[in-house]
Amino acid sequence: MKVLKILNNNAFISYDSHGKEVIVMGNGIAFGQKVGKEVTPTGRYKIFSNTDSETNERLKAIVAEIPEEYMKITERIIFILEKQYDKKINDVVYISLTEHIHGAVERHKKGIEVTNPMLMDIKRLFKDEYEIGLSAIEDIENEFGIPFGEDEAAYIAQHLIYGQLDYMTSITDVTKLMQEIIDIIKYTFRTNFNEESIYYNRFVTHLKFFAQRVVSDQTYSDENQDLFDIFKAKYLESYGCVCKIVAHIKNHYDYDLNSDEQLYLMIHIEKISTKARLEH
Questions:
Q1: pTM of the predicted model, to two decimals?
Q2: Helices 259-279 and 236-253 sit at what angle, rounded to 10 degrees?
Q3: Is 228 within 8 Å of 263 (Cβ atoms)?
Q4: 8, containing H or E segment
Q5: Around Cβ 208, how many Cβ atoms within 10 Å?
Q6: pLDDT, tens only, 263-274
Q7: Which end of the chain is less congested by CB atoms within 10 angstroms, N or C?
Q8: Together in a domain, 180 and 81
Q9: In the chain, helix, strand, coil percent, each to 5?
Q10: 61 domain residue, yes or no
Q11: In a domain? residue 37
Q12: 41-55, 74-88, 178-192, 205-219: least confidently modelled range
């Protein structure tokens, strides 16, 4: 691809195969390059297409206005999320997270400390993102000498969570519904769950996207009625728990769970409840 304009050492503007403008980003990818030169990107890089012109313009502004060290931290954070945790994220996080980190550093320099009211919820319900947030504040300290704490790690985690959800969805609403469902399950089975277990973490991941659909009123396919009937008859206690969740969501969110949604909830509930019984 041909270099049309160099934004900084880590980004340049080019055209894709359809003649549309794109931004190519990667560590040192534009270093030593010249306008008009053909370049074959290697190593770790990201191409931002022009499907959203507003996003691209914001990205150009960030590259021009914010020191490139901030974008490098963002790029590493997202790389960890996608490659090590196998989670997909919206490209707009490259913008929002870079702006956030830059703003947090500038506020700290002015002596402004910000607490995160969702810290405990983030730590409990979004452990992967929170762990990445902790890694990110280490990077920030290494790069800028600023020692952020858990509150900032949780704020970074929130950007990663939003990037996996519909941006119109409130993370507060999603977290609230997730906790309500977990409380119903705990009450039904009269037990606490091992929050470090793989079964629980898989359930929380499923619950995150399930809660998003509910609070944003998105419908879900309904194709497994026969399988639902089989599991309903086999796992009576888990199905009874699902019925409580169905009633709660209908009463408080005016959302009707179809058989597919109930089926997947039932499967996860059966796994984590069985594991909890074996551990006690």
A1: 0.74
A2: 130
A3: yes
A4: strand 5-8
A5: 20
A6: 989 999 998 888
A7: C
A8: no
A9: 60, 10, 30
A10: no
A11: yes
A12: 41-55
